[in-house]
Amino acid sequence: MNVIAQSALSRYNYRLPYRKIADRFEQLHGLELSGAATWHATERAARASRCEYEQIRRQIQQADVVHIDETGIKRNGEQAWIWTFTTENHTLYAVRESRGSDVPAEVLGEDFAGTVICDGWMAYPAFSDNLQRCWAHILREAEDAAEKQPEGKPIYDSLKQLYVALQTRLESDLNIRERAELQRVARRELESLIERSVPDGPVATLLGKIEGGLDHWPTFVGEPAVSPTNNAAENALREPVVLRKLIGTLRNDRGMFVHETVLSLLATWRQQGRNPYDELKRVSRNNEMISRDQAVPAVETSG
């Protein structure tokens, strides 16, 4: 169990190549292993943890609010995507060849009833109407447009002032009716913003994005549990992005399976304040006991 747990942690917590993991086993414990052996130990950790991976998926499927984001990753040199689905207490990664709405439909279920917090990628409105578009994204884009085109400066200022004003107003203990009224006010402000006449260029593109998400920018005003930004999902993708730079490419389906499973379990355990090493030993031990029980055939006795 120790070898399995330490192999997975060395790879995914400490980002070591499998060859160096084997070297550490020999240096620290006098245990001679090949790089391939440490890979197989990490794969065993993933397979032992897969039931808990599915439990995380079920918890997220039942959540009221889920942050989603995705970034590119290579699979055998070809383009693939690693998606993250994160809530307050659970994070799940899924490596898929698709960047379309079929992925959230597969992971969350087509009847998912919660609110999705996301960026402006078209897969999200294709999956759900109940969205919160990320204000951090649109404010960055507005600031960039203002730097490129003079007409963008008053639009960026108005957008930022609206966001700050909404945040300030929400610091009061508003009731449902007051929140609904504030949400209508926010929408009217956004509508007046997109009615401005501007020449073609970055500012026109920005206003098009604001208009395209008109129903989804003020969701957080009416729903107290919803964050106005997708920072949680962006933060969850940081570790896979670092690993992507080190690993380069996942070689096959087995690599994808290990990658998404171990990353999900480690992220979720960290969120819940659990010790990853102890948890890896636990799931490996439980899996070993189940495998041993299943390997023993039932013995019939005659009366």
From TrEMBL:
Residues 3-256 form the Transposase IS66 central domain. Signal peptide: none annotated. InterPro entries: Transposase-related, Transposase_IS66_central. It holds the Pfam family DDE_Tnp_IS66. It comes from the Archaea. This is Transposase IS66. It comes from Haloarcula amylolytica JCM 13557.
